């Protein structure tokens, strides 16, 4: 391909090599390193003047170092007069921040201090008066505390989405290509085009080819947030759907119980999720499915970060097979007998090709599109 350069950061060189192999080009020449004081050093060793540059860097490993390296590579290509610069970020860093404080194990705290910001919940009209009275009482109590010299500070939870977007565009990125953003609304932070690719087609292909009698299995979402993703796969494959739901037993209580919506007894189950970091959510959901009579439990995850002791948690969990993408390096994780990997290089290679030639990206969102 003429006037196309694909550079790879240090976060995932294997993915860069595979993408370039599918495009039929050699990876761009860049020297990446660090000085003795750990500052990042980037040297682009070939001309990118008036060329279409794609920089592949995933948000994994040493996230902050890798993100700074990406910014410097973008800036270096811009200063070297690149015609257009596209940041290809398979797993986008900082797109997921916890809504509530988490324990070091990854589990959410069972109780929160009153001053912690919470997401507003819908209330019944008949309970509105009681809640207003309770809020007035808390306000009066806080006012008394302030008068007595005991002011209570309301913790402010910083959101980094706008900052990350501004840093990328300020460095010189003209276009962003990523996959399975945790929150699709994150695209709105950017002043440049963002293509959020979906791994749904690759997941469905794996299910059709690798799960025996998959039509008799049940697609399960481990939480309400992933219900839309899981139902889309279930509808396309004509499969049953179930949902693991958190139910609050008492008003104003942060304690919640898991409940299963759907029937999984005597069936194989396929958990669908976008991110597995500490693996707390999917392992807990798998235990519930096993307790409800599920025969075999698969779990398919777009971005398997598997930090801390997540792999050990998977090994000891009720999950029989965890299928993950290689949006982040999986060489170490794949040593586990339970973990299998599906390749997203065809998806990103096709996205780069279409972007370079000015073709539509919408075809990549079609689950029937064959990337082979």
UniProtKB/TrEMBL annotation:
Signal sequence residues? none
Which part of the chain is the Ribose-phosphate pyrophosphokinase N-terminal domain? 5-99
Its GO CC terms?
A: cytoophidium; cytoplasm; ribose phosphate diphosphokinase complex
Q: What EC class does the entry list? A: transferase
Instruction: Name the PROSITE patterns on file.
Output: PRPP_SYNTHASE
Q: Where in the cell is it found?
A: Cytoplasm
Does the UniProt entry include the keyword Nucleotide-binding? yes
Major localization listed first in the record, in broad terms: cytoplasm
Entry's EC annotation: 2.7.6.1
Q: Matching InterPro entries, A to Z?
A: PRib_PP_synth_CS (IPR000842), Pribosyltran_N (IPR029099), PRTase-like (IPR029057), PRTase_dom (IPR000836), Rib-P_diPkinase (IPR005946)
Chemical reaction(s) catalysed: D-ribose 5-phosphate + ATP = 5-phospho-alpha-D-ribose 1-diphosphate + AMP + H(+)
Concerning its family, UniProt says:
Belongs to the ribose-phosphate pyrophosphokinase family.
This one is known as ribose-phosphate diphosphokinase
The record lists the lineage as: Eukaryota, Fungi, Fungi incertae sedis, Mucoromycota, Mucoromycotina
